[in-house]
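Q: For a teaching session next week I want to show students how multiple molecules come together into a single three-dimensional assembly. I've collected the sequence lines for a complex. Could you give me the predicted structure tokens for the whole thing so I can convert them for display?
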Amino acid sequence: MDFDALRGQCELYLLNALDPAEREEIDRLIASRDAQAREAMAAAHDLVAQLALAAEPMKPPALLRSQLLNRIRQESPAPPKPTSILSWSGWAVAAALLVGVLLLTSDRSELHLASQRAQEELTRLRDEIRVQRKVLAVLMARDSRTIRLATGTPEAPQMRAYWSQPEGLILTGSGIAVPPAGRTLQLWVVPKQGNPISAGVFRPLGDGRVLLITESNAPIAGAAALAVSEEPEGGSPQPTTKPAWVGALGD
Amino acid sequence: MMLMMLSSGGRAVGPPPGKDSAETRWAGYVAAAARGDQAALAALYDETSPLVFGTIHRILMNQADSEEVTLDVYTQIWRSAGEYTPDRGAVAGWILMLARSRALDRFRSRQRRAGQETVLDDLSPLRAAGDQPDEIAALEQQRRMMRAALDTLAPEQKQAIELSFFGGLSHTELADALGQPLGTVKTRIRLGMTKLRQLLSAGKEVQ
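A: Of course. Below is the structure for the complete assembly, covering every listed component.
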């Protein structure tokens, strides 16, 4: 296959317009680190991405930026926090900080800056509470199920999922190898009948930890298993590789 | 300068040599973010978020969901910045494809929750935005080229490509939705993408 034809196939691959056999051929070429295939995929990737320019740009709300910065600050190797579980006292401290700052700072620019920082801290705390409430809600739900996802190798790291129909699905793990560049991990709900349903894509953190919180709406009663497979970056509509981790739900 | 932010069908990927392009700047932000530089991620967000948010909103047509997915996208960029290499394509392409994937993931999740079928009418129109941010004004020429190129396609080719990209429909799903044979849908996408590639390459040379 010449370069142009290969690039055309890669474009269809990215638009999910190839038959399974054709997809496998592209997967095989990419996995074999074929230089021409990788170059063709990169060129196809750029062209397909340009389709996004057909959408009108929209400025996101200003608050989103501070939420993002708060979130990544949490993930950065920053000085350890006194506690990882936020109590209501945290809220009180944050609120007192905000009020105190408002009362004591006379300079308007300083007041504005301090207020902004306090607001960002409140936003960060809100995000943290939201996550922790979600985890607690799933763990404490009456219908909460625990599913252990294992590989075929006994000593390999496992993952654990906690699933409640109304509350959501949480996947945790540690020591999980980070997939190579251009690949990601994807969680699937495998129903008793029908095709697997994506429950989200994720990458372990640098130290191998996994915490995925998803809103899977697939019915637990109709699920046979959970599975995790390695997929192209961004995930796939259906698994393209054999799942590396599988956990049966049982009856 | 901005036309090379995303390579448009040529074999060369990335900015032309010697040009201080946005692509080079964004690649610098990503490299700095990989070293833990939060300001670099903030700068990348400032310059690219209108594109990302617009793409996500076009797919989801929902403000709250679009905001959440945008946050997730930049968080993922932060986490995986160290894994980005130029041989995977332009930074802009990497970010936009990531945004598309995450938005489609949310879209499918929402569909399952609502038990709805894809509504083609919701996906087809280009949504007009009242607020044109200054940060992406420089991209306007590239956007005009893409939209002009799309408009030169046969309507059925444009429809198939847009539904595939923004609707996330596979060619099988497209064939069902459009009531056309599988081969026909695939051919429409293939021919449309080939023409787009040629048009954008030609446009780039003119520039």
